[in-house]
Protein backbone atom coordinates (compact mmCIF):
# COMPACT_ATOMS: atom_id res chain seq x y z
CA UNK A 1 0.00 0.00 0.00
CA UNK A 2 1.38 3.41 -0.99
CA UNK A 3 1.85 6.34 1.40
CA UNK A 4 -0.81 9.06 1.17
CA UNK A 5 0.35 12.16 -0.69
CA UNK A 6 -1.01 15.50 0.52
CA UNK A 7 -0.95 19.15 -0.46
CA UNK A 8 -1.20 21.58 2.41
CA UNK A 9 -3.47 24.41 1.24
CA UNK A 10 -2.98 27.36 3.65
CA UNK A 11 0.11 27.50 5.84
CA UNK A 12 -1.06 29.51 8.85
CA UNK A 13 -1.20 28.36 12.49
CA UNK A 14 -3.43 25.37 11.74
CA UNK A 15 -1.73 24.46 8.44
CA UNK A 16 1.67 24.31 10.13
CA UNK A 17 0.38 22.14 12.97
CA UNK A 18 -1.45 19.79 10.57
CA UNK A 19 1.72 19.45 8.49
CA UNK A 20 3.66 18.29 11.57
CA UNK A 21 0.91 15.83 12.54
CA UNK A 22 0.66 14.39 9.01
CA UNK A 23 4.40 13.79 8.84
CA UNK A 24 4.23 11.84 12.12
CA UNK A 25 1.51 9.67 10.52
CA UNK A 26 3.74 8.99 7.50
CA UNK A 27 1.85 11.20 5.05
CA UNK A 28 4.06 12.51 2.26
CA UNK A 29 3.64 16.26 1.74
CA UNK A 30 4.07 16.94 -1.97
CA UNK A 31 2.98 20.58 -2.21
CA UNK A 32 2.21 23.68 -0.14
CA UNK A 33 0.01 26.57 -1.22
CA UNK A 34 0.16 29.89 0.61
CA UNK A 35 -0.91 33.44 -0.04
CA UNK A 36 1.64 36.19 0.69
CA UNK A 37 3.79 35.15 3.63
CA UNK A 38 6.63 32.60 3.40
CA UNK A 39 6.35 32.19 -0.38
CA UNK A 40 9.47 30.43 -1.72
CA UNK A 41 10.46 29.16 1.72
CA UNK A 42 10.72 25.47 2.56
CA UNK A 43 7.65 24.05 4.31
CA UNK A 44 9.77 22.14 6.85
CA UNK A 45 11.53 25.31 7.91
CA UNK A 46 8.26 27.30 8.14
CA UNK A 47 6.66 24.54 10.23
CA UNK A 48 9.60 24.55 12.62
CA UNK A 49 10.61 20.96 11.86
CA UNK A 50 14.30 21.83 11.88
CA UNK A 51 14.84 20.09 8.54
CA UNK A 52 13.87 20.65 4.94
CA UNK A 53 10.90 18.88 3.37
CA UNK A 54 12.02 19.88 -0.13
CA UNK A 55 8.61 21.49 -0.61
CA UNK A 56 8.61 25.19 -1.40
CA UNK A 57 5.53 27.19 -0.41
CA UNK A 58 3.98 28.61 -3.57
CA UNK A 59 1.06 30.93 -4.25
CA UNK A 60 0.59 29.49 -7.73
CA UNK A 61 -1.95 26.75 -7.08
CA UNK A 62 -2.02 25.66 -10.75
CA UNK A 63 1.74 25.13 -10.74
CA UNK A 64 1.52 23.07 -7.55
CA UNK A 65 -1.26 20.84 -8.94
CA UNK A 66 0.57 20.29 -12.22
CA UNK A 67 3.89 19.40 -10.58
CA UNK A 68 2.61 17.27 -7.68
CA UNK A 69 0.12 14.40 -7.84
CA UNK A 70 -1.68 14.33 -4.50
CA UNK A 71 -4.42 12.16 -2.96
CA UNK A 72 -5.74 14.91 -0.72
CA UNK A 73 -5.54 18.65 -0.09
CA UNK A 74 -5.65 19.70 3.56
CA UNK A 75 -7.17 23.16 3.55
CA UNK A 76 -7.02 25.82 6.28
CA UNK A 77 -7.27 29.41 5.20
CA UNK A 78 -10.90 30.52 5.26
CA UNK A 79 -14.18 30.17 7.12
CA UNK A 80 -16.89 30.44 4.47
CA UNK A 81 -17.90 28.52 1.37
CA UNK A 82 -17.55 31.51 -0.92
CA UNK A 83 -13.81 31.73 -0.16
CA UNK A 84 -13.41 27.96 -0.30
CA UNK A 85 -15.24 27.58 -3.62
CA UNK A 86 -12.55 28.32 -6.27
CA UNK A 87 -9.65 26.57 -4.48
CA UNK A 88 -11.88 23.51 -3.91
CA UNK A 89 -12.97 23.49 -7.54
CA UNK A 90 -9.30 23.49 -8.52
CA UNK A 91 -8.58 20.52 -6.23
CA UNK A 92 -11.54 18.56 -7.58
CA UNK A 93 -10.67 19.22 -11.22
CA UNK A 94 -7.17 17.93 -10.49
CA UNK A 95 -8.59 14.73 -9.02
CA UNK A 96 -7.61 15.64 -5.43
CA UNK A 97 -9.84 14.91 -2.41
CA UNK A 98 -10.31 17.76 0.10
CA UNK A 99 -10.53 18.00 3.87
CA UNK A 100 -11.01 21.60 4.98
CA UNK A 101 -11.37 23.19 8.40
CA UNK A 102 -13.51 25.95 6.82
CA UNK A 103 -16.18 26.27 9.50
CA UNK A 104 -19.11 26.61 7.11
CA UNK A 105 -17.98 23.52 5.16
CA UNK A 106 -18.94 21.37 8.13
CA UNK A 107 -22.58 21.51 7.03
CA UNK A 108 -23.06 24.01 4.20
CA UNK A 109 -26.23 22.51 2.71
CA UNK A 110 -28.54 25.17 4.09
CA UNK A 111 -26.23 28.21 4.31
CA UNK A 112 -24.64 27.90 0.81
CA UNK A 113 -26.82 25.38 -1.02
CA UNK A 114 -25.90 26.35 -4.59
CA UNK A 115 -22.13 26.26 -4.16
CA UNK A 116 -22.33 23.04 -2.16
CA UNK A 117 -24.52 21.33 -4.75
CA UNK A 118 -22.20 22.43 -7.53
CA UNK A 119 -19.10 21.15 -5.70
CA UNK A 120 -20.96 17.94 -4.85
CA UNK A 121 -21.78 17.28 -8.50
CA UNK A 122 -18.29 18.18 -9.66
CA UNK A 123 -16.71 15.94 -7.01
CA UNK A 124 -18.94 13.04 -8.10
CA UNK A 125 -17.93 13.62 -11.71
CA UNK A 126 -14.22 13.52 -10.83
CA UNK A 127 -14.54 10.68 -8.31
CA UNK A 128 -13.27 12.62 -5.27
CA UNK A 129 -14.66 13.60 -1.86
CA UNK A 130 -14.84 17.01 -0.19
CA UNK A 131 -15.45 17.26 3.56
CA UNK A 132 -15.38 19.97 6.20
CA UNK A 133 -13.79 18.90 9.50
CA UNK A 134 -12.07 20.19 12.60
CA UNK A 135 -12.78 20.24 16.32
CA UNK A 136 -16.53 20.32 15.64
CA UNK A 137 -16.39 16.81 14.18
CA UNK A 138 -15.72 15.48 17.71
CA UNK A 139 -16.87 18.07 20.24
CA UNK A 140 -20.00 19.43 18.61
CA UNK A 141 -21.22 16.58 16.39
CA UNK A 142 -20.04 13.04 17.20
CA UNK A 143 -20.15 13.40 21.00
CA UNK A 144 -23.58 15.03 20.91
CA UNK A 145 -25.13 12.56 18.47
CA UNK A 146 -23.79 9.60 20.44
CA UNK A 147 -25.06 11.05 23.74
CA UNK A 148 -28.60 11.30 22.34
CA UNK A 149 -28.46 7.52 21.96
CA UNK A 150 -29.21 7.43 25.72
CA UNK A 151 -32.36 9.56 25.33
CA UNK A 152 -35.91 8.26 25.36
CA UNK A 153 -37.37 11.76 24.87
CA UNK A 154 -35.64 15.12 24.29
CA UNK A 155 -36.99 18.60 25.04
CA UNK A 156 -33.84 20.59 24.34
CA UNK A 157 -30.16 20.33 23.49
CA UNK A 158 -27.94 23.08 24.89
CA UNK A 159 -24.26 23.53 24.06
CA UNK A 160 -21.69 25.96 25.43
CA UNK A 161 -18.03 26.03 24.40
CA UNK A 162 -15.11 28.37 24.91
CA UNK A 163 -11.90 28.87 22.95
CA UNK A 164 -8.77 30.98 23.36
CA UNK A 165 -8.31 33.35 20.40
CA UNK A 166 -4.57 33.34 21.15
CA UNK A 167 -4.37 29.62 20.23
CA UNK A 168 -5.19 30.48 16.60
CA UNK A 169 -3.98 32.91 13.97
CA UNK A 170 -5.20 36.43 13.16
CA UNK A 171 -8.09 35.14 11.00
CA UNK A 172 -9.90 33.67 14.04
CA UNK A 173 -9.18 36.80 16.13
CA UNK A 174 -10.79 38.81 13.31
CA UNK A 175 -13.95 36.68 13.29
CA UNK A 176 -14.48 37.40 16.98
CA UNK A 177 -13.57 41.10 16.69
CA UNK A 178 -10.68 40.81 19.15
CA UNK A 179 -9.12 44.24 19.79
CA UNK A 180 -11.88 46.30 18.20
CA UNK A 181 -13.61 49.17 19.94
CA UNK A 182 -17.20 48.55 21.03
CA UNK A 183 -18.39 50.88 18.23
CA UNK A 184 -16.39 49.00 15.56
CA UNK A 185 -17.86 45.73 16.84
CA UNK A 186 -21.44 47.03 16.64
CA UNK A 187 -21.05 48.29 13.08
CA UNK A 188 -19.17 45.17 11.84
CA UNK A 189 -21.60 42.56 13.13
CA UNK A 190 -24.30 44.15 11.01
CA UNK A 191 -22.26 43.30 7.89
CA UNK A 192 -21.03 39.88 8.95
CA UNK A 193 -21.04 37.27 6.18
CA UNK A 194 -21.77 34.05 8.05
CA UNK A 195 -25.44 33.31 8.33
CA UNK A 196 -24.80 31.18 11.41
CA UNK A 197 -22.33 30.94 14.26
CA UNK A 198 -19.72 28.17 14.09
CA UNK A 199 -21.56 26.07 16.66
CA UNK A 200 -24.86 26.69 14.85
CA UNK A 201 -23.42 25.07 11.72
CA UNK A 202 -22.55 22.01 13.82
CA UNK A 203 -26.09 21.98 15.26
CA UNK A 204 -27.40 21.70 11.70
CA UNK A 205 -25.30 18.58 11.24
CA UNK A 206 -26.58 17.05 14.49
CA UNK A 207 -30.18 17.91 13.58
CA UNK A 208 -29.72 16.28 10.16
CA UNK A 209 -28.09 13.24 11.78
CA UNK A 210 -31.10 12.83 14.12
CA UNK A 211 -33.50 13.11 11.17
CA UNK A 212 -35.17 16.26 12.55
CA UNK A 213 -36.41 19.26 10.56
CA UNK A 214 -35.48 22.84 11.42
CA UNK A 215 -38.48 25.15 11.81
CA UNK A 216 -36.81 28.43 12.79
CA UNK A 217 -33.32 29.65 13.49
CA UNK A 218 -31.88 32.76 15.06
CA UNK A 219 -28.30 33.95 15.41
CA UNK A 220 -26.79 36.74 17.47
CA UNK A 221 -23.38 37.87 18.65
CA UNK A 222 -22.43 39.59 21.88
CA UNK A 223 -19.14 41.32 22.60
CA UNK A 224 -16.98 40.58 25.65
CA UNK A 225 -15.20 43.70 26.82
CA UNK A 226 -11.74 43.70 28.48
CA UNK A 227 -11.97 44.76 32.11
CA UNK A 228 -8.21 45.38 32.23
CA UNK A 229 -5.31 45.53 29.75
CA UNK A 230 -4.61 42.04 28.32
CA UNK A 231 -1.72 40.94 26.10
CA UNK A 232 -2.81 39.14 22.90
CA UNK A 233 -0.36 36.84 21.10
CA UNK A 234 -2.67 36.59 18.04
CA UNK A 235 -2.78 40.38 17.65
CA UNK A 236 0.78 40.97 18.84
CA UNK A 237 -0.34 43.84 21.07
CA UNK A 238 -2.10 44.75 24.30
CA UNK A 239 -5.89 44.83 24.19
CA UNK A 240 -6.76 47.86 26.25
CA UNK A 241 -9.39 47.97 28.97
CA UNK A 242 -12.71 48.79 27.25
CA UNK A 243 -11.73 47.15 23.92
CA UNK A 244 -13.24 43.89 22.68
CA UNK A 245 -11.59 40.82 24.24
CA UNK A 246 -13.69 38.46 22.14
CA UNK A 247 -17.31 37.57 21.45
CA UNK A 248 -20.06 35.00 21.96
CA UNK A 249 -21.90 33.57 18.95
CA UNK A 250 -25.37 32.41 19.97
CA UNK A 251 -27.45 30.10 17.78
CA UNK A 252 -31.01 29.03 18.54
CA UNK A 253 -33.04 26.57 16.49
CA UNK A 254 -36.50 25.07 16.85
CA UNK A 255 -37.61 21.92 15.06
CA UNK A 256 -40.89 20.55 13.71
CA UNK A 257 -40.48 17.70 16.20
CA UNK A 258 -40.62 20.15 19.15
CA UNK A 259 -36.97 19.76 20.20
CA UNK A 260 -35.18 23.09 20.78
CA UNK A 261 -31.47 23.60 20.24
CA UNK A 262 -29.26 26.40 21.60
CA UNK A 263 -25.50 26.82 21.32
CA UNK A 264 -23.19 29.49 22.65
CA UNK A 265 -19.59 29.68 21.45
CA UNK A 266 -17.27 32.09 23.21
CA UNK A 267 -13.93 32.93 21.62
CA UNK A 268 -11.80 35.46 23.45
CA UNK A 269 -8.26 36.09 24.63
CA UNK A 270 -7.91 34.11 27.84
CA UNK A 271 -6.52 35.46 31.03
CA UNK A 272 -4.57 33.23 33.39
CA UNK A 273 -6.52 30.30 34.88
CA UNK A 274 -9.01 30.17 32.00
CA UNK A 275 -9.33 26.95 30.04
CA UNK A 276 -11.18 25.52 27.03
CA UNK A 277 -14.53 23.94 27.88
CA UNK A 278 -17.21 22.11 25.94
CA UNK A 279 -20.53 21.46 27.71
CA UNK A 280 -23.70 19.82 26.44
CA UNK A 281 -26.94 19.51 28.37
CA UNK A 282 -29.74 17.36 26.98
CA UNK A 283 -33.04 17.93 28.76
CA UNK A 284 -35.48 15.08 28.49
CA UNK A 285 -35.83 11.56 29.76
CA UNK A 286 -33.25 11.12 31.12
CA UNK A 287 -31.46 14.47 31.56
CA UNK A 288 -27.91 14.13 30.24
CA UNK A 289 -24.80 16.22 30.91
CA UNK A 290 -21.43 16.15 29.20
CA UNK A 291 -18.44 18.30 30.10
CA UNK A 292 -14.97 18.37 28.55
CA UNK A 293 -12.24 20.58 29.93
CA UNK A 294 -8.46 20.95 29.88
CA UNK A 295 -8.05 20.32 26.16
CA UNK A 296 -6.32 22.41 23.53
CA UNK A 297 -8.77 23.74 20.93
CA UNK A 298 -6.04 24.26 18.35
CA UNK A 299 -4.65 20.72 18.66
CA UNK A 300 -8.19 19.29 18.72
CA UNK A 301 -8.83 21.17 15.47
CA UNK A 302 -5.93 19.48 13.72
CA UNK A 303 -5.85 15.91 15.08
CA UNK A 304 -9.40 14.90 14.04
CA UNK A 305 -8.90 16.58 10.66
CA UNK A 306 -5.87 14.40 9.98
CA UNK A 307 -7.48 11.26 11.46
CA UNK A 308 -10.32 11.78 8.96
CA UNK A 309 -8.04 11.56 5.90
CA UNK A 310 -8.48 7.78 5.32
CA UNK A 311 -12.27 8.08 5.74
CA UNK A 312 -12.36 10.77 3.06
CA UNK A 313 -10.19 8.86 0.58
CA UNK A 314 -12.27 5.70 1.25
CA UNK A 315 -15.62 7.52 0.96
CA UNK A 316 -18.00 7.57 -1.96
CA UNK A 317 -17.42 10.72 -4.06
CA UNK A 318 -19.26 14.00 -3.49
CA UNK A 319 -19.52 16.72 -0.85
CA UNK A 320 -19.82 14.39 2.12
CA UNK A 321 -20.47 16.03 5.49
CA UNK A 322 -19.00 14.35 8.58
CA UNK A 323 -22.25 12.96 9.99
CA UNK A 324 -22.30 10.67 6.92
CA UNK A 325 -18.75 9.39 7.45
CA UNK A 326 -17.84 6.40 9.65
CA UNK A 327 -17.30 6.94 13.38
CA UNK A 328 -14.12 8.98 13.83
CA UNK A 329 -11.31 7.22 15.68
CA UNK A 330 -7.65 7.17 16.69
CA UNK A 331 -5.13 6.07 14.07
CA UNK A 332 -2.29 4.12 15.69
CA UNK A 333 -0.58 3.32 12.38
CA UNK A 334 0.58 5.31 9.37
CA UNK A 335 -2.56 6.70 7.72
CA UNK A 336 -2.22 4.68 4.50
CA UNK A 337 -2.74 1.45 6.53
CA UNK A 338 -6.42 2.48 6.79
CA UNK A 339 -7.10 2.80 3.08
CA UNK A 340 -9.50 0.32 1.49
CA UNK A 341 -7.90 0.47 -1.93
N1 LIG B 1 -13.01 24.04 11.88
C1 LIG B 1 -12.20 24.29 12.90
O1 LIG B 1 -12.16 23.52 13.86
C2 LIG B 1 -11.30 25.50 12.86
C3 LIG B 1 -10.46 25.74 13.95
C4 LIG B 1 -9.53 26.79 13.85
C5 LIG B 1 -9.51 27.61 12.74
N2 LIG B 1 -10.40 27.38 11.74
C6 LIG B 1 -10.39 28.26 10.53
O2 LIG B 1 -9.28 27.90 9.72
C7 LIG B 1 -8.74 29.04 9.08
C8 LIG B 1 -7.24 29.11 9.38
O3 LIG B 1 -7.02 29.32 10.75
P1 LIG B 1 -5.55 29.68 11.27
O4 LIG B 1 -5.64 29.84 12.75
O5 LIG B 1 -4.56 28.75 10.68
O6 LIG B 1 -5.40 31.13 10.58
P2 LIG B 1 -4.08 31.98 10.29
O7 LIG B 1 -2.97 31.57 11.20
O8 LIG B 1 -4.52 33.39 10.29
O9 LIG B 1 -3.64 31.51 8.83
C9 LIG B 1 -4.37 31.69 7.68
C10 LIG B 1 -3.39 31.39 6.54
O10 LIG B 1 -4.09 31.28 5.30
C11 LIG B 1 -3.30 31.90 4.31
N3 LIG B 1 -4.14 32.23 3.17
C12 LIG B 1 -5.04 33.23 3.03
N4 LIG B 1 -5.66 33.14 1.84
C13 LIG B 1 -5.12 32.07 1.20
C14 LIG B 1 -5.35 31.46 -0.06
N5 LIG B 1 -6.23 31.96 -0.92
N6 LIG B 1 -4.63 30.36 -0.39
C15 LIG B 1 -3.73 29.85 0.47
N7 LIG B 1 -3.47 30.37 1.69
C16 LIG B 1 -4.17 31.47 2.03
C17 LIG B 1 -2.69 33.09 5.02
O11 LIG B 1 -1.57 33.57 4.33
P3 LIG B 1 -1.16 35.14 4.42
O12 LIG B 1 -0.85 35.40 5.86
O13 LIG B 1 0.04 35.22 3.54
O14 LIG B 1 -2.35 35.91 3.92
C18 LIG B 1 -2.32 32.46 6.37
O15 LIG B 1 -1.06 31.83 6.30
C19 LIG B 1 -9.55 30.25 9.63
O16 LIG B 1 -10.50 30.65 8.69
C20 LIG B 1 -10.19 29.72 10.88
O17 LIG B 1 -11.40 30.37 11.20
C21 LIG B 1 -11.27 26.35 11.76
Question: How would you describe this protein?
Answer:
- By secondary structure, the chain is of the alpha/beta class.
- It has two domains: 5-133 and 308-338, NAD(P)-binding Rossmann-like Domain (Rossmann fold, 3-Layer(aba) Sandwich), CATH 3.40.50; 136-295, Dihydrodipicolinate Reductase, domain 2.
- It is built from eleven helices and 15 strands.
- It has helices spanning 13-24, 43-46, 61-67, 81-93, 113-126, 135-147, 170-175, 182-191, 198-209, 297-307, 309-314, and strands at residues 5-9, 28-33, 57-58, 72-75, 97-100, 129-132, 153-164, 214-225, 230-232, 237-239, 244-255, 260-268, 277-285, 288-293, 318-319.
- It has a seven-stranded parallel β-sheet with strand order 3-2-1-4-5-6-15, sandwiched between helices. Strands 8-11-12-7-13-14 form a six-stranded mixed β-sheet, covered by helices on one side. It has a two-stranded antiparallel sheet with strand order 9-10.
- Helix 5 (113-126) links the parallel strand 5 and strand 6 (129-132).
- Helix 6 packs across helix 9 (198-209).
- The longest helix has 14 residues, at 113-126.
- The radius of gyration is 20 Å and the shape is globular.
- The protein binds NADP nicotinamide-adenine-dinucleotide phosphate (NAP).
- The site of NADP nicotinamide-adenine-dinucleotide phosphate has 28 residues, from helix 1, helix 6 and helix 7.
